[in-house]
Design goal:
The complex is a heterodimer of chains A (338) and B (286). By secondary structure, chain A is an alpha/beta fold. Chain A has twelve helices and 13 strands. Chain B has 286 residues and is an all-alpha fold. The chains are: A alpha/beta (338), B mainly alpha (286).
């Protein structure tokens, strides 16, 4: 099948002005500013098939948002091409935006002071949604997102989770073919996150909508995306199946152990014996064990430690997304290639 | 909407009347949305309306005192000067009605990040910015201007049908919006500068102050000033030239009819500049 989204050699440069200090510096900046170029997105290429749900991840400042903004027609690239459904986003912006939905987790697209339903009514007019489709969509959103009882409330009085549900509904009202989500679960509690993820799975199955989402939350990726693209310093470092990524990086977790009495890390290593666990002294009575969850069960490590030592506190942490990225980056630098 | 196709149906070029009708519906909807927003804060709305009425009365009083002391100006008699002044307020009011978002554009839209959302909607970006907010007190200036013109007309001995015909009313209905386009074009061009320079340029306020030079017959100024106000910063076209249709000689009356053309050129140029600016738009971080 022909890909729905085609990105080729995409670049974006920002022109920065380095400010000098003091009054004389300010004057110098005025006369001859020190400019330099920052390449935020550097030769990014990928294609996405209709119906795919792709996670686009990277650390802060990696170029995620800049890419999304070029894909949605907000920014004009410095070089390269983007084609979505045969349209060039920034060139055919008004036509193109009829086919996409966009949610920025940090910002609402609803009218702040008005009841939620007023925003929906205006969007209905803007996107020329017919009455029957509007009713159907509203019923669907109420069923899946429970937006019905929020409709009469002013947007400014909604909680973050409620607002995100309404924003998602607003982005999907005109039944777009592609949905762009920039940090859709940022700042939400566990329950709200689960709601949003469940909804995205449902809507994708029903409408076959293609979804691209950026996130800091590995949970979003694990539950929603089969495919991930990792970007760092503007370049793509990994593009493939999540399962493949996991095989490459391993599912490293860290177990932090606080003992009652001092002990050396080697003593703890002796306690876990033959298991492939790397121990490291942290601070004071605290030691950290790192191991691959695919090889070692956390319960087994904990059992061996507790049998051997008096333990005051335990804390098990998933490897944060930044580590996954760093690991991919390290492998790429070591010549593994991505 | 079948999931198999990978090409978006191009909405295509709709016939112009259909497109204009759609645009009109959208802007109507934006205006209604704006009113609802204002009414959400009922007290503010009430206070604003009262303040507008009050300032209207004060301005009328000030005018009375001012022109009670002036009789003639370089061959223009007092009612003529008064008429030009009155006329100048109508395009100014029209302009103020829709320009409120241009002043805060750099801060709110570019730095505050509201422009992202504007670009995500299938409506022209400039139209959205202009129609997202209105300055109701612009109506104040329009009403004041009409009142002053009626008063000046009476002083000039005009009556409807004698000295001031239906044709003149129609010309007024075309020249006033045309003159408002000159204002809009000039300040839109100044606003557009912020697409390239992230700092507020602060050019708009001093230029806004120059507007007051446009309220007098420009024949009282020296030649360089006249050339400047006609061709460089075309503020002569917001009041003097169009008003000359009514109070100037037969020669100036012909010049007056060029006003809509000047408005279209200035505004059209500003729109082209805006489009280039949008291409150059740099969004805020994340």
């Amino acid at each position: 099948m022909e890909p729905l989204i085609r990105v080729e050699g995409l670049c974006k440069d920002y022109r920065l002005v380095d400010r000098r200090e003091g009054v004389s510096g300010g004057l110098k900046d005025l006369v001859r500013p020190r400019r330099r170029l920052l390449r935020a997105v550097d030769d990014v290429s990928f294609t996405i098939e209709p119906g795919e749900m792709v996670g686009y991840i990277g650390a802060n400042g990696a170029g995620k948002s800049t890419t999304i903004k070029m894909l949605t027609g907000i920014l004009t690239p410095s070089a390269g091409t983007v084609e979505v459904g045969g349209l060039v986003p920034w060139r055919q912006r008004q036509q193109y935006t009829r086919h996409i939905g966009v949610v920025f987790g940090q910002r609402t697209q609803l009218w702040w002071d008005l009841a939620v339903v007023e925003s929906f009514r205006l969007l209905k007019k803007i996107y020329e949604v017919d009455d029957a489709t509007y009713e159907r969509q509203m019923a669907l959103f109420d069923e899946l997102l429970e937006t019905g009882k929020l409709l009469s409330q002013p947007v400014r009085k909604l909680s973050l989770g409620q607002r995100m549900r309404c924003d998602l509904a607003a982005a999907l009202l005109h039944r777009p073919r592609v949905l762009f989500l920039d940090e859709p679960t940022i700042g939400l509690d566990v329950v709200a996150k689960e709601n949003i993820r469940g909804f995205l799975r449902d809507i994708r199955q029903r409408d076959g909508v293609t979804v691209i989402l950026t996130t800091h939350d590995l949970g979003d990726i694990e539950q929603l995306c089969r495919r991930v693209i990792i970007i760092d310093q503007g370049r793509v470092h990994f593009d493939g199946e999540l399962a493949d990524l996991r095989r490459r990086v391993g599912q490293t977790v860290s177990l932090s152990v606080e003992l009652r009495e001092p002990a050396g890390s080697d003593e703890l290593a002796a306690a876990t014996g033959a298991l492939p666990v790397a121990w490291e002294a942290a601070s004071g009575l605290r030691h950290v064990a790192r191991f691959n969850r695919a090889e070692v069960r956390a319960a087994e490590v904990i059992r061996l430690v507790v049998n051997d030592r008096q333990v005051q506190d335990l804390h098990l942490a998933e490897q944060p997304i930044e580590h996954v990225v760093r690991e991919i980056y390290r492998q790429a630098a070591a010549g593994g290639g991505a | 909407m079948d999931a198999g196709t990978t090409r978006f149906a191009a909405a295509g070029a709709r016939p112009l009347p259909a497109r204009l009708a759609w645009q009109a519906r959208i802007f109507g909807a934006y205006f209604v949305q704006f009113l609802k927003m204002r009414l959400a804060y009922r007290m503010d709305f009430l206070v604003d309306t009262l303040a507008v009425g009050f300032s209207l009365l004060i301005q009328l009083a000030v005018l009375g005192v001012l022109f009670g002391k002036v009789s003639a100006l370089d061959g223009w008699n007092f009612p003529q000067v008064l008429f030009i002044y009155g006329f100048s307020l109508v395009p100014l009011g029209l302009f103020n009605l829709v320009s409120v978002n241009l002043y805060g554009f750099a801060d709110e839209y570019l730095i505050g990040g509201r422009f992202d959302r504007v670009l995500l909607r299938p409506v022209g970006s400039l139209a959205q910015v202009i129609f997202e907010s209105f300055n109701v007190s612009g109506l104040n200036e329009i009403l004041l201007g009409l009142a002053v013109m009626v008063h000046a007309g009476r002083e000039l001995g005009w009556k409807l049908g004698a000295g001031f015909g239906v044709q003149d009313l129609m010309v007024l209905a075309v020249l006033a919006p045309g003159a408002a386009l000159v204002y809009l074009g000039v300040f839109l061009a100044l606003t557009t500068v912020s697409f390239w320079f992230e700092d507020k340029m602060g050019l708009a306020p001093p230029v806004y102050n120059l507007i007051r030079f446009s309220r007098y017959p420009i024949t009282i100024y020296s030649l360089p000033v006249r050339v400047f106000l006609t061709f460089v910063l075309p503020f002569a076209w917001v009041a003097f030239y169009p008003a000359a249709w009514f109070v100037g000689g037969p020669h100036l009356a012909k010049v007056a009819l060029l006003t809509p053309l000047v408005g279209a050129v200035v505004f059209g140029g500003a729109v082209l500049l805006w489009r280039r600016g949008v291409r150059n738009y740099v969004s805020t971080g994340s």
